[in-house]
Amino acid sequence: MKQQFALTLIAATLVFGAQAASYSGLDAGRFDPSVRVQDDLYHAVNGNWLKNTEIPSDKPSHGAFLILRDLSEAQVRSIVETAASQNGAPGTALKKVGDLYQSYMNEALVEQRGLAPLQANFAAIAAINDQKALAGQLAQLSKAGLYAPLGIYVGQDEKNSTAYIVNVYQSGLSLPDRDYYLKSDEKFIAARKALSTYFENLLKLSGETQVDVASLLALETALAQAQWTKVDNRNPQKTYNKKSLAELKKLAPDFAWDEYWQAMGIANQSGPVIVSQPSYIKAMSEILAKTPLATVKVWLKFKVLDQYANALPKAYADLAFDFHGKALSGVPEQKPRWKKAIAATSSSLGEAVGELYVAKHFTPAAKAKMDVMVNNLLASYRSSIKDLTWMSAATKVKAQEKLSKFTVKIGYPDQWIDYSALEIKADDLLGNLQRAQLFSSARELNKLGKPIDRKEWGMTPQTVNAYYNPSMNEIVFPAAILQAPFFDPNADDAVNYGAIGGVIGHEISHGFDDQGSQYDGDGNLKNWWGKQDDKAFKALTSKLVAQYDAYEPLPGKHVNGQLTLGENIADLSGLAVAHKAYLLSLGGKPAAKIDGRTGEQRFFLGWSQVWASKMREPMTLQMLLTDPHSPGQFRANGAAVNSDAFYKAFNVKEGDGMYKPAKERIRIW
Q1: Of residues 118, 113, 178, the one with CA closest to residue 144
Q2: Which domains does the chain have, with CATH numbers?
């Protein structure tokens, strides 16, 4: 699906808060006094926390983001359980939220019903008797949230951002990435064995007496061989392939597209469509055509069981956890049921929960303070563009124009999703989840032919994250991330600018990273660079690729500098712009010392504090292949070693671990 660039930015007279704050917002108990900041910023700030913190037994990782997500989860739990106990008026959002949560928590009823709620799905799959019926069923499954072996979504046309268009993309693998199927590394071989075991155990539990595991693995391996790499999928020009429906049929003639569109409910779709990975779609149609229908049908049954395993009796949930949790992520213990219930409720009724969340946990004062910070960051970015030495004057004008067109969304949407048409029952968990997904799919498909909804949000307010959307040219900060350690209204400005300021700068910088910079101020995929500017930009970013390629989180396993390039640019530039904004916020006055540290020192310590992270080895391996973000240690240190202000703040000298010669420091925006 279309990528949003997520984190999981006025004049100097604008100030964020009073510099008289005596509470810094730094947690000195996390620091490791045996490590000098000049040698390793990340471990100096987070060393004791890393030594003394155990990853919770139900998680693959832990850190500042996860701690804040735990807080948001606890806040949402209180809201949802209150909604369940209040038993609101029929049809209200409060009633739906409470009933969905209750349906998830009623384990006895889930056990009693077994697979009965999925029998209609199984019958529809069993009835597939030819390629036309297969295409129709794949569409039905897609509307219900099962994207195998292809998916579609409705999004803005990247070269005409005023119109919606259908996008077709690759999907369907049960392992995290194509490399898991194709490489001979022992860890990948073990993952394939775990998948084979999961195929057999899950299907036999459901009543299948004979399971040809080899044929199922061969099917997914063939799809994996055809899929594009994560790096290729980061290139918006490569993935923008507009085709008429006739061209799509010619590309993949073995697939029954007419039946697919009919079952999708958009039979009047006259095209064109965007095909993200044309070679995959071609290969997929050939693979489905030559694979025995019996194999495809068993595979689809497996996919349905896997999708809903956590909402099925315990035996199914346990098998799913053994595969997804233990084998792939190294997690020793399942989440308690209430956490799964909260996640399902927030996923199915996200903005209904969000509206309740904002009313209780987000104040107008917090929004106002965030507005000021964003304005300072935008002003800082304008100044940075003006001062660039590698960009021509003509391209600077266009960069400033794009920045001036940024839309900023803070906290929560101005207009909430209306869930009145979605039926939720307190005694129908599987039905609730399926109806919620069909409701979401219908909302998306209904966008075709309509004006662009510029009030829409891609995250809920209770989400601890932020994002940049290039087609909207917008930066979005949900309410839940505006809490400590990212944002503390009672803390020192320097730490807040290093933390949430760095996040704001990061998201602004996504508009000018290697992907976002290919979109203009109106959100269109359009080249606005001069040739020499583009050449200079690529020369700088290639150095950043090399820097991160050298990082080795696991023995023999390096960060992929090309996959993580956009996020690394955003970290590097976000830190630089946030620092400049902090200086703007001082209004020319010196910052007071707190706990013996200068304002600029506290700024960088605040930056490092938010990247604290521990991750289990299997999850680290997975993230190195699939995640466009670098591990936390390298996000903290990788940006700081290129910051001249960091060297000045801590008097970093040649011979120090964080030292990089001035001529080798990478300065982009």
Answers
A1: 118
A2: 5-68+364-406+486-664 (3.40.390.10), 113-334 (1.10.1380.10)
